[in-house]
Amino acid sequence: MLTHFNNDGRAKMVDISEKNSSNRIAMAKSSIQMSRKVYEAIKNQNIKKGDVLSVAQVAGIMAAKQTSSLIPMCHPIPISGVNIDFEWKNVDEQIELMIKVEVKTVGKTGVEMEALTAASITALTIYDMCKAVDKSMIIGSTYLLEKSGGKNGDYKRS
């Protein structure tokens, strides 16, 4: 049953006032593929806009905190913590940077959208900062890895 529609079939924000607060965690992943030239520029701090991974982490954290301003039906929620990790993977001549985001809160609604938004904005920030070196980067799939807390229980991607 879709809960974001009122009796007239129009959009509404779900009422969470009767829900209990609980610890909630969501983890999301995204990735960006790049040439060896971009990889080397990031690793050697040769990007004119600054330290790519540090700036991308800050952008992702800011995105998590601003999710309700971007996604119309998301509730503004207090974020307890955001962590963004990077892992380099070599795929033939393309290098892939895996982005993993964990968002935590204690609240009445989950942080899945915050984690997904943070992962997306982190990847987009990397693209923005490196596009002068090579515009052929590819932002990969963004998806929920797992979430815990709430009345619907836990979820873990298999």
TrEMBL record:
Residue stretches making up the Molybdopterin cofactor biosynthesis C (MoaC) domain: 13-150
Organism of this sequence: Ornithinibacillus halotolerans
Subunit (UniProt): Homohexamer; trimer of dimers.
Descriptive protein name: Cyclic pyranopterin monophosphate synthase
A GO MF label: cyclic pyranopterin monophosphate synthase activity
Gene Ontology terms describing biological process: Mo-molybdopterin cofactor biosynthetic process
Function text: Catalyzes the conversion of (8S)-3',8-cyclo-7,8-dihydroguanosine 5'-triphosphate to cyclic pyranopterin monophosphate (cPMP).
HAMAP family: MoaC_B
Enzyme Commission code: 4.6.1.17
